[in-house]
Amino acid sequence: MENQTNTNKIGINYGIILATILTLFTVLGYAFYQEIFVKWWVFFLLLIVIVLIGILSAVKSRKILGGIISFKETFKAYFIPIVIGTLISTLVTILIFNVIDPEAAVAIKDRSIEVTMEFMQKFNVPEEDMNKAIADIRNADNFGALTQIKNWFGSMIVYIVIGLIVSLIIRKKEPIE
């Protein structure tokens, strides 16, 4: 029981670290460089950071448990920080772009349309397809609270799948004698 408490504490601590990283990214991006929200590579980088924090939590938990950790404990140690960190970050995003400054969400959407147009023009996408893509972006409410919550749940599915694989790799059974 004490070991579970230790792994939970580790997960919570890493969750707070992840929440801090993601919140700083959102706040600093909002304040200084909103263009960052339309860069595709940034979200790939954030995915890597999020998964790495989960892995670090699982590895540290295994170390605390003397090198022996079950699949269940490994997955829990991986997943707790991801849930905490991404949930807090999502709530901060909702607060900034729906309460504090909804106009920023509009500006980012407008820039997203420009970036999409430039990209599609480079690849000679037919105008009809470009118009459809732009209409889809205009109709989307990417920063809306409901969209953010749905996206959070969707991302949890991705992190669960990754976590299952990570847990299979990190777990370590007690040796059979």
UniProtKB/TrEMBL annotation:
The chain crosses the membrane at residues 12-33, 39-59, 79-100, 152-170. The keyword Membrane applies. InterPro entries: DUF4199 (IPR025250). It comes from the Bacteria. Keywords: Membrane, Transmembrane, Transmembrane helix. This is Uncharacterized protein DUF4199.
